Description:
Elements: H1 2-14, H2 19-26, H3 36-50, H4 54-69, H5 73-79, H6 83-97, E1 102-109, E2 112-118, H7 125-141, E3 151-156, E4 159-165
Antiparallel strand pairs: 1-2, 2-4, 3-4
Helix pairs in contact: 1-3, 2-3, 3-4, 4-7, 6-7
Amino acid sequence: MQRRCGAARFERALETLPSVVREEYDQATALGWTQQATVREATRAVALELGVDPIELAAQVVEESVAQSLRGVWSILVRNTSDEALVSRAATIFGKSFDAGKFRAEALTAGRVRVVIEGWPQAHDMDIASIARGIVAILEVAGRRRRPGRVTALREGARILFDVDAT
């Protein structure tokens, strides 16, 4: 997010956060844990500073971050993995990113997978959009053709269904 708005604007946005939220956000590391609520508040503050939709900002940042993380050697590995295995392995990423819900993938037909998250009835729309875009990024790095509507999300109570078309 900082790259999107520059250091000064990013800092100005974070200054609007309550001190406890700002402290947790400032102490975040790649190997540490930050509550999703904290990330959402920081994202909303940056989106307000930029004048953009916070859900779309979060989704774009996740997509770019996942794609950047999987470049290089990782891209070779994911390119030689089946669609079903790619989406199933996304459970590991989900488990490290969220502190709620249980993530699983089901093969539907060739090139189509359903990702199901159970036990997370209070999932925020920002989290759902971010997960969908993270899946898109994984498939893009893996060399699957990108087209609109590739991942659709549907909330069914405590379940969230992501239909993934990886063709």
